[in-house]
Amino acid sequence: xxxxxILEPIGVIHTPHGQIEGMPVQPAGAAGFTGKAVIKxxxxxxxxxxxxxxxxxxxxHFHKAEGYVLMPVPFMDTKPHGVFATRAPxxxxxxxxxxxxxxxxxxxxxxxxxxxxxxGTPLIDVKPYFPKYDSPPDSKSGWLDTAAHKQxxxxxxxxxxx
Amino acid sequence: xxxxxILEPIGVIHTPHGQIEGMPVQPAGAAGFTGKAVIKxxxxxxxxxxxxxxxxxxxxHFHKAEGYVLMPVPFMDTKPHGVFATRAPxxxxxxxxxxxxxxxxxxxxxxxxxxxxxxGTPLIDVKPYFPKYDSPPDSKSGWLDTAAHKQxxxxxxxxxxx
Lengths: 162, 162
Description:
Two copies of one chain form a homodimer.
Chain A: E1 5-7, E2 11-14, E3 34-39, E4 55-61, E5 95-106, E6 109-113, E7 121-128, H1 131-134, H2 142-148
Antiparallel strand pairs in A: 2-3, 2-7, 3-6, 4-5, 4-7, 5-6
């Protein structure tokens, strides 16, 4: 196993969220917040045909997160859970992902609805959304099903993960 | 924007696939292939409550991929597409993700169905699957819808991305 994996951003994500407090949690709670993923010039050709997809998963760096908490209390609940059973940003690797609705792909810019990340977030990858890969039927979602899913769209973040 | 993002694997994924040729493409084509994600000792507490979820998204390193191709011909089609409209491993950042069915979580090991990655793959993150976040309704999937989705489960990889 390699000990280190070195990534370089492929671009940057612009959103209306200049600070962590008050941000929506997850794209499901961020409808109406438009973001722009701007790709570096040398990678723009790689966006070809993305406009045929309604959604994409953006993979990005939680660039303001420092360190990790193994048993965080996530925004969606009042009890701690293992970090790998949450989407909390203070993880061993500060990688976030959000499946967002594509509004347009023009030149170097993917405009999307569901912006739930900070302005200036470094973009690592864009993956096309395909239900056959990404939406297993008959799923269950543990504490998220039982504790908090009804309130997802009103939850806002605070500074617990700064 | 930071120029480099340095990750360290949180563990390793063991699968029946010792080489790239002949591997299934995506978990939808890998049903019946069992994998084991083994987490480093210092992170095992972070798996708490993951057993309540039926599925998780594994984020990992395409550790055998070198370089990138902006217009690859993916396994699922005979025409080139922009790399960000495909899941091809030769991407600017060699990050893969697969949403798999959790069979068990015991100690440091998550056993799962849908192993579509190489044996020895470095594990970067585990995210719980939650349809409200990860399964937007009314999606469309461009070339994947039209060209190849009917054949997904029989497609096998070859050495084009080695």
